[in-house]
Amino acid sequence: MPEDKGGRPYTVYDLEGMPDDGHRYELIDGALLVSPAPGLRHQRMGLLLALALEQVCPQGLVVVQAPFAVRVSESIELQPDVLVARESDLTDRLLPVAPVLAVEVLSPSSVIADLNYKKAVYERIGVPAYWVLDPQEPKLSVFEFGEDGLYELVAEVKGDDPFDAERPFPVRIVPGELLGSLR
Questions:
Q1: Domain span at residue 143?
Q2: Residue 9 gets which letter from DSSP?
Q3: How far, in Å, CA of 177 to CA of 165, rounded?
Q4: Which listed site, 5, 69, 90, 117, has its alpha carbon 20 to 30 Å from 81?
Q5: Domain with 128 in it: what CATH number?
Q6: How many domains does one find in the chain?
């Protein structure tokens, strides 16, 4: 279990001392967010999305699966389930700037964090496209910046309905297909 920090906010340096216990440890403005290991549908959907993105990913961009840190400050470190980043922005250990796409796959324990806290952080740090996948329906919700500089829901597709993304690059995503044989 994470050590009590005596009321002070956590930092990315505290994350380095977290146990290797299968949990995902993330920080939002110094608050520790701990998630249990994801289930089969979650993992399958993330993997098949990463593969679909990788197949059409243009040169200069890289598709990365969790766990891989997006560390934009000492008090913010997130690990999107899938991300797309500029190759020139990546280090061997982490991404120190906003990715061009962050994707979270919902788990029963992550719904509130993914749809509220993480969405707000991704918006604030300037992630141009944020996708949320629900492996139970299956469903894809796509958020992009509107004219007011805030995220707006630009697409929501379910089952076998396709989504033809333009950001971060052209790709067709069909939520139901991302479950493979688990459909």
A1: 38-182
A2: P
A3: 16
A4: 5
A5: 3.90.1570.10
A6: 1
